[in-house]
Amino acid sequence: MTDIVSPGQGVVVSKAPERRDIGLKRRYAAERRFRIYGIAAISFGLIFLAVLLTSVVSKGYTAFLQTAITLPIEFSEKTIDPNNKRATDPSVLIAANYSVLIRDAMVKTLNLNASSRPEVRDATAMISKGAPIQLRDMVVADPSLIGRTVNITLLADANVDSANKGQIDLKVDEKNRKVNDRQVGWMNQLAETGALHKKFNTGLFVNGNSSRPEAAGLGVALVGSLYLMLIVLVLSLPIGVAASIYLEEFAPKNKLTDLIEVNINNLAAVPSIVYGLLGLAVFINFAGLPRSASLVGGLVLTLMTLPTIIIATRAALRAVPPSIRSAALGLGASKMQMVFHHVLPLAMPGILTGTIIGLAHALGETAPLLLIGMVAFVANAPATPMEPSTALPVQVYMWANEAERAFVERTSGAIIVLLLFLILMNLGAILLRRRFERRW
Amino acid sequence: MNMLTEAAVEKAVDQKMNTIPYKMIGQDVSVYYGEKRALFDVKLNIRENTVTALIGPSGCGKSTFLRSLNRMNDTIDGCRVTGKITLDGEDIYDPDIDVVELRARVGMVFQKPNPFPKTIYENVAYGPRIHGLAKSKADMDQIVEHSLQRAGLWNEVKDRVHEAGTGLSGGQQQRLCIARAVAVSPEVILMDEPCSALDPIATAKVEELIHELRENYTIVIVTHSMQQAARVSQRTAMFHLGNLVEENDTDKMFTNPDDPRTQDYIMGRFG
């Protein structure tokens, strides 16, 4: 470098002309300003994302734990089957009063005065009202339990659960809260012995809906959403890809195809609730498909997803360089061979990404499902797509409308599950794109 | 000295030119892109086993004419061809002629090397495979090796035929495209400025290759380079504004053209 600035002796260096003002300062300032706008825009988005995630996660993570109480339950024959008829009449085991077993166990564990009815009522209220059914199912499955005393873990009532998670303010006057001082005392007493503890909430993923928050789960919604996704994938991917290939590669470019293109783009912008109305009118009222069924939901979401997939696929097809098409045609490949041997494989990453984004969109869609009745209270998982079902976002919507304190965390918990699925799907999209991506 | 003998041989070939049969005949070929007319009644015949160079300034219609020889213009929306083009006396625009079969007989090499994003082997094997030219794997291996040898690429790639064709250098890619075209055993090979994206060394290799291919194939090449046209071709056709200005033996064309416009273009006065 020094050679340039210090030329040898006798070398004449040209004189620089006077510097012109070419507005460098202004240009660089404009660029700096633009960068700041960009960073501000991104930070703005990131802040909101962070707020959303923190709020959902901080409210929802507790939903994955559930307070349970382990009690030594005495399966006394006197209560379950006083007349010893179970050998001939198994229905005795179903009709028996299992609440008594729980009441007795509570009285014994907490040393209560069995004759004081309010005290006993408060104590049994700490156990979920679903617990007797749990005991019944155990006895029906294994009648040999009768006459034995077994430690059994029962779900705590939702209010106890909330109190145990610190979601109920115990400083509030006793009359204005769902858990009274006596129950709080028993909770502490049970917690000391380890009888009252938190366990992982498997019920959240397995159980159907329930009006008792502690027993309510996403099982039905998960199965319903799975059916929806399968139906949407199976229908919209082949239809969408076939439509795009035809429009992009085979159809003549004329007024009619222009019109179709405009319409597809417009369909992508139609509010989803309109698709719900369409589904209600066509699939339920006209075609007579069952209400609330995931089949109908899947069909409606397919209609909604198709434009997205078609637009993404056409963009992916258009991005394949024309030279590849010429190369194939120049070798004597037919149009069909050109498309399926060369263009489609190269467009695959784009098509898959579009499809998964469309599916993710469909997974989070609520409005059209409300209109076709998938907002029903469904307690048992649907065995087929023809049976009533709900979906994850609809379950979120339904729980958000519930009054109980315990449903707040469950709503957020359901949102976390939904977001996890969306993240998984997007991750899948990225991985697939990486796998199929080829350079040319 | 070698050059001299080569030139002498070429001269002898050129003198025999008039006895060589016509592989393709173009009669009053006009091409329209929508309303715009790109070619005006071109009469141009292509002789068998001869390299015919099409020269002329940009936008003169030489590529358009080339692409109408294997109906690649069909793929362009709104493109219309009138007149008559025959291959071995058969009208290639006849409704009975299958365009897929035509393109198997009239292959094409493009301006920019455009190998498929697949392995070298797959690039060459694709054409024979879709046309069912190989009966077995061994057959196909032989076709691939033979085609790569024809394209002068075999020695460079024989150890890596299963690697990506897009990983080759530009010149190698173009020779791969030539091998790919040769693999279908076409009768005519059309080349649309095959060296415009290549450096001089790669260009020299491709030109040498064209020279060798002439023995077995009829070649039509579009080029912007006068020197290239002079080096590789025996016949040259000069286009200007959609018209065929002159068609002649290359030697005559570059020494004593009949049309003053050819003279001007070759001298670099326009274009």
TrEMBL record, chain A:
Transmembrane ranges?
34-57, 226-247, 267-289, 295-317, 338-363, 413-432
Q: What is its main location?
A: membrane
SUPFAM superfamilies with a match to the protein in the record: MetI-like
Q: In terms of domain of life, where is this protein from? A: Bacteria
Q: Where in the cell is it found?
A: Cell inner membrane; Cell membrane
| GO terms (BP aspect) | phosphate ion transmembrane transport
The Swiss-Prot or TrEMBL record describes its family as follows:
Belongs to the binding-protein-dependent transport system permease family. CysTW subfamily.
NCBIfam families in the record = 3a0107s02c
Protein name (record): Phosphate transport system permease protein PstA
- What organism does the record attribute this protein to? Rhizobium altiplani
TrEMBL record, chain B:
- Cited InterPro entries: AAA+_ATPase (IPR003593), ABC_transporter-like_ATP-bd (IPR003439), ABC_transporter-like_CS (IPR017871), P-loop_NTPase (IPR027417), PstB-like (IPR005670)
Q: Does the keyword Transport apply?
A: yes
Q: Name one GO biological process term.
A: phosphate ion transmembrane transport
One GO location term (cellular component): membrane
* CDD domains cross-referenced by the UniProt entry: ABC_PstB_phosphate_transporter (cd03260)
- Could you tell me the keywords of this UniProt record? ATP-binding, Nucleotide-binding, Phosphate transport, Transport
The ABC transporter domain extends over 24-266
Q: SMART domains attached here?
A: AAA
UniProt GO molecular function: ATP binding; ATP hydrolysis activity; phosphate transmembrane transporter activity
Q: Which domain of life is it from?
A: Bacteria
- UniProt keyword Transport, yes or no: yes
Q: Which family does it belong to?
A: Belongs to the ABC transporter superfamily.
PANTHER family hit by this protein: ABC TRANSPORTER I FAMILY MEMBER 17 (PTHR43423)
In its UniProt entry, what is this protein called? Phosphate ABC transporter ATP-binding protein
